[in-house]
């Protein structure tokens, strides 16, 4: 089974994470309710098992908790994929949520990059700063070694926009990590 377990402790966060690419238990506790909801959506719509416990310096704000979780989830994704052989490599998805529509495309290439195109009218959803959506996606993409393009096509409600984006990224990742024979590269390696 394609899994990774990572523990990372800094002066700002203490994170324990287990990722199972082929499904498993979902249990999320970051101390930020909306972020828990987004990670739960990511795991559910990606078909991933994901257990995350985070103790962060939330007395400062949500920045370190969200970004560091993206770092650890990205590292776990990279570790679980190993040499990236036997995967479809590419994935994309459009996901609607009420008035909002989000798009994501991913290349599990070993070359990290992020294109993020979204503007949120609201600055917060619960205790989650909406600007942290981009920080999470960047940390995830760069630490997973993937190219990720994601954008909000339209929408007004930040909750709907961000949730649609997390689901679109999850579905694109699910497609990209789905089984396929060989290494999908003219070079013969993904790095």
UniProtKB/TrEMBL annotation:
Q: What is its EC number?
A: 4.2.1.19
Q: PROSITE patterns given for it?
A: IGP_DEHYDRATASE_1 (PS00954), IGP_DEHYDRATASE_2 (PS00955)
BP-aspect Gene Ontology terms: L-histidine biosynthetic process
Which cellular compartments is it found in?
Cytoplasm
Q: What Pfam families would the database entry show?
A: IGPD
Pathway entry = Amino-acid biosynthesis; L-histidine biosynthesis; L-histidine from 5-phospho-alpha-D-ribose 1-diphosphate: step 6/9
UniProt KW keywords: Amino-acid biosynthesis, Cytoplasm, Histidine biosynthesis, Lyase
Query: What's this protein's family per the entry?
Result: Belongs to the imidazoleglycerol-phosphate dehydratase family.
Q: What's the name of the protein?
A: Imidazoleglycerol-phosphate dehydratase
Which organism is the protein's source? Answer: Solibaculum mannosilyticum
